[in-house]
Specification:
It contains 6 helices and no strands. It has 112 residues and is an all-alpha fold. It has one domain (2-104). α3 packs across α5 and α5 (71-80) crosses α6.
Length: 112
Amino acid sequence: MLTRLRLGLSHLRDHKFHNNFQDCINPLCLCGDDIENNIHFFLHCQNYNDERRNLLNEIEIINEELLNLSDSELVDIILFGSIALTISDNKIILNASIKFILETKRFDGPLF
């Protein structure tokens, strides 16, 4: 799932909409707040507040300044890690990202 999110080919409605999946007529999240893209999924969707709290706590432990980055920059680090961080810190972030993805159960069903 991490690779699919990186490539924009995941279950998220924005990904499906822009890749012309017939089962997705618009990119809006089912929560009704915004387009369901990587930023919305990881940082804003109200459906995953508890899971997000755990993810952001892991990131904050590494470096609380990371939480001051723009949404786009933070999601890039959540998905790819950062050359500015140690290998150990990147592993922690990527493992926390995978844990978040699994805990949300957002990708448990079939892609189409």
